[in-house]
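Now produce a polypeptide, keeping tokens residue-aligned:
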Amino acid sequence: MMLGKGGQTISDLAALPDQPALFGAVASTAIAWRVLDSIDTIVLQRLRAARAVARERADYSEQRRRADLWRVLVENAAIRFDLGDRGIR
């Protein structure tokens, strides 16, 4: 969660327990250090690959959202233009 929200250091974990309604149960700093210490090269490669896939999906989703928004704007502009030509406001 911390990394997903832009955290870059273990100290960034300190902000999460202050908002239990938003983040739920949060690992202690000691547990976070143990997890980080247990990450080897293979796990790190898998984490990087999963992050790349997640970013690609998010980017695709954002591109789709923008395309949908653009389509709606264009359709609305076309409707307004068409109605304006007919003297309808």
Q: What stands out?
A: The two ends are 49 Å apart (CA to CA). Residues 9 and 42 are 21 Å apart (CA to CA).
